Fold this sequence. Notes:
Number of domains: 1
Number of helices: 9
CATH topology: UDP-N-acetylmuramoyl-L-alanine:D-glutamate ligase
Distance between the termini: 15 Å
Strand content: 15-25%
Order of helices and strands: EHEEHEHEEEHEHHEEEHHH
Largest sheet: 9 strands, mixed
Number of strands: 11
Structural class: alpha/beta
Radius of gyration: 17 Å
Mean pLDDT: 98
CATH architecture: 3-Layer(aba) Sandwich
Bound molecules: 3-hydroxy-5-(hydroxymethyl)-2-methylisonicotinaldehyde
Amino acid sequence: xxxxxxxxxxxxxxxxxxxLTVALPLISAAGIETAVIPTxxxxxxxxxxxxxxxRDLSEDIVPVARHWKSENITVDAVYTGYLCSKQQxxxxxxxxxxxxxxxxxxxxxxVMADNGKLYKGFxxxxxxxxxxxCAAADIITPNITEAALMLGVKYMEPPYTEDYIxxxxxxxxxxxxxxxxxxxxxxxxxxxxxxxxxxxxxAYVFSERLDAVYHGTGDVFASTLIAxxxxxxxxxxxxxxxxxxTCACIRRTxxxxxxxxxxxxxxxxIPNLIKYLEL
Length: 279
Ligand code: PXL
């Protein structure tokens, strides 16, 4: 069988493991070719560093895809993450269209917010635009904040009720018709994980809830989910692998005095990812 290929469309944050510097090693380690379309280059991500330099690559997004198309290069999945402007939403939709076949999956992580707040640099109406991209996607992986912002529903602090989680899942399904993997779901202080919704049934996957927060764990989760999906796991099984792997990365990082802005030590856990995937 031919090797599967993903196009990862995110920024490159040169320091502070997230977006492409997470997606590329993790998906590649799982045996999947990972082509990239960088949306911007930043000296660091925007979460806690000051004075970062930023180069917008918007004008190259569609030409890269057009070139691939002229070379008959298509992909099995398009994985979109952090996008830095409303205009990039439209550019990414066009790029995805150019490099997709009928069976290509569009997986959108609507990276823009956490802990009830939009990330630095986004206008208040950015979630309305991200919702358009989610409506074109087959699978979306919002966290609770992103789901609440796209729906205009009040953000709640954890622990959650199952009613609140179902309101988010059903609301997003009505607006996107995508399968949903909602992250950051927790009903008690011991476990955290994700809700998986296909429009009919909600299933939950959990791992241990650890008392530490690091940047980029959403990208670790989504990249691992895609790595598992393209290795023929069901969405629920892929979400369980992603939850376990993300937890293992956090646990390893907690062993030393790590700066939360620097991201997690996922490199040490790559052998475990390969084991979870039975590669
Ligand atoms: O991990 C998400 C992310 C990706 N890229 C950039 C970011 C963030 C979150 O803050 O700033 C540039």
